[in-house]
Amino acid sequence: MRLIASAAEMRAIPRSKEFRNGAVSFWYRELGLPKRRAALPGDADYDVCIVGAGYTGLWTAYYLKKEQPDLRIAILEREFAGFGASGRNGGWLSAEFAGSRERYAKEHGKGAVIALQRAMMATVDEVITVAKDEGIDADIVKGGMRIVATNHAQKARLLQEIAYLQEWGYWPEDYYLLEPDYEPMLRVDGAVAEAFSPHAARIHPAKLVRGLAAVVENLGVDIFEGTAVTELRPRKDAQRPAAVAEQGTVRADYVIRATEGFTAEIAGYRRQWLPMNSSMIVTEPLSPEVWKRIGWEGHEVLGDAAHAYIYAQRTADGRIAIGGRGVPYRFGSGHDTNGATQPQAIAELWRALARLFPAASEAPVVHAWSGVLGVPRDWCPSVYLDRTSGLGWAGGYVGSGVATSNLAGRTLRDLVLERNTDLTRLPWVGHRARDWEPEPLRWIGTHLVYGLYRGADRREASRTLETSTLAELATKLAGR
Ligand SMILES: Cc1cc2nc3c(=O)[nH]c(=O)nc-3n(C[C@H](O)[C@H](O)[C@H](O)COP(=O)(O)OP(=O)(O)OC[C@H]3O[C@@H](n4cnc5c(N)ncnc54)[C@H](O)[C@@H]3O)c2cc1C
Questions:
Q1: What is the pLDDT of residue 463?
Q2: What domains appear along the chain, each with residue ranges and CATH number?
Q3: Residue 418 pLDDT
Q4: Of 42, 148, 164, 273, which has the fewest beta carbons less than 10 angstroms from its beta carbon?
Q5: By C-alpha distance, which of 399, 398, 394 is closest to 383?
Q6: Distance from the CA of 402 to the center of ligand 1, in angstroms?
Q7: Per the database record, which ranges form the FAD dependent oxidoreductase domain (predicted)?
C-alpha cells in the first residue's frame, strides 16, 4: 500500500452523501449503538469474573452458565458488549485457524493439530446451531468460502495451500479447486483460479454479539459496562484472584482475560499481544443489474490469495463489505479511535473492490471503519488457565476469531470446571509465546513486514509465476 493516497485518488472514490468513518462500525450504524448497561457498582464477589464482552468473554460465560446454572459470573466491559472486533469484523464464520501447525505439532504431535482443525470445522456448525436455538438472527448463511487467485503466483500458492492443508486435517472435500463453470456463479474480475471450502458462513457480526450478550444476560450473568479493568491480580495466600477497576475490585475463583487487541492497555501485558489493525469499507446496496453481472447468490465469504489479502461478504441487504490490513499498527500499541480508519486504507480497499468487481465500482462507499485484533509474537492463538494464580485467557486469534472464540469459550468452560476433555487436550491449550520487542522495534518490524508483503504482491501481479522472495523474507522476519 502506498502510504499516502493522492487527492485525485481520494476524489475518484465514489462516496455516499451519508459517508461516515468510524462510529465503531457500519454494523452498529445499521443496528444503532446499544444503550449501555450499568457499570460495576463497587467491590464484588463472584465464582468467575471475565474481562471483556466480545465473543470470547460471552461464549465463555454462555457455556459455563449452561453447564452449571448456579455459577455466579460477572463480565466487566470497558465500553459496551461488542465494542471491539466482535462488533466490527468481516463476518466470516470460518474454520480457518491462525498459527503454525508445525509449532503446535512440535509440542503435541500432528494428530493433535488435525484434531484441532476438525474441531474448528465443527465449531462453524456449533455457532450456527446455538444461534438458531437461542433465537439469535445474525443473517447467517452457510455458503462456504471462496478464495480467488488473480495471478499465476497466487494460483501456484493456492494449489500448494490445498495440498498442505490436506496434510493437516482437511480432507479432499473440505478444500478444493473449483471448476471454471462452477455454480452458483461468482464473477471476480481477473480470477485465474478459485478454491472452495464448505466450512464457512456469512454472518452479521454485531447482530451475533448483541444477541449473544442478551442471551447470556438472560441466563443470569451480570454484564457491567463502562467498567475498565486496569489490573489483574493473581491469587495470593488467602486472597482470591481479582480484576481491579476504578469502580471496585471483583474477586473470583477464576479471572479470565478476554480483551484480545486491547490487551496491551492492561498493566503488565503491554507486549503480550500486538494490536493489529484491520479496516473495512461497505458500499450502498448494489442494483439488481449489477448483482446479475456479479452473481454471488451463494453468499460465500470471499477472499483472495494475495499476501496483503482482502476478505469480503455480500451483505443480507445486497452491499459488498470488503476488508484488509490497512495501516497495520499504531506506534506504542496505540489506542483504537472508535473505529476511524485512515484515508489510505479506504483508498486501498476501494481499489481492491473496483479491481475485483468493476461492475460495482460506481457504487458509493457509505462507511469505513477499522478494529484491532490480537497477534501473539509467534502468531499462534492460545487458551490458558493457571490454577495456581487463578488467571486465564483466550485469544491471539490474529485475523480468525469469529469461530475460534466459540471453541475457546467451550474450552475455558472445561478448564474452569476442572474437566479433562477432548477440548482441553487440543494443542493450543497452555501454549505460550514470548513477548513482542519493545518500541521502536515493534513499529519498524510490523511496517517492514507489511511493506514487504505489499511489494511481493506488486511483483507477483506483474511478472512472477511463483511466490516472491520478498514475501518469504517477510514471513521469516514476522516469526510466523
Ligand atoms: C475489521 C476486522 C475484521 C475481522 N474479520 C474477521 C472475520 O471475518 N472472521 C474472523 O474469524 N475474524 C475476523 N476478525 C477477528 C475477530 O473479529 C476477532 O478475533 C474476535 O472478534 C475477537 O473476539 P474477542 O471477544 O476475543 O475480542 P473483542 O471482540 O475485541 O472484545 C474484547 C472486549 O474487551 C473489552 N476490553 C478491552 N480492554 C478492557 C479492559 N481493560 N477492561 C474491560 N474491558 C476491556 C473491549 O472493549 C472489547 O469489547 C476481524 C477483526 C477485525 C478488527
A1: 67
A2: 7-478 (3.50.50.60)
A3: 97
A4: 42
A5: 394
A6: 9
A7: 47-415
